[in-house]
Amino acid sequence: MSDDHKVLIGIGKRCKISHAILDKNCSIGNDVEIKGGKHLQDIETENYLIKEGIVVIKKGAIIPAGFKIV
Fold first, then answer.
1. 59, HSE (Cβ side, Cα atoms, 13 Å)
2. For the CA atoms of the chain, what is the radius of gyration?
3. How many structural domains are present in the chain?
4. pTM for the complete prediction?
């Protein structure tokens, strides 16, 4: 597996994250883009939730490289 596809604890390279809360021990892969805001609908998944435009990455979540919430 190349370095660009490994997911380690913390935030990967070239990530753009705004209007978000990252809980502890989450893993954010490289090139992830998370841009919270009022344009997003409320939703809850296994790894994250969106409430009133704020994106919350859950404790221990693994967000793969290239993932986008915009």
1. 1
2. 11
3. 1
4. 0.85
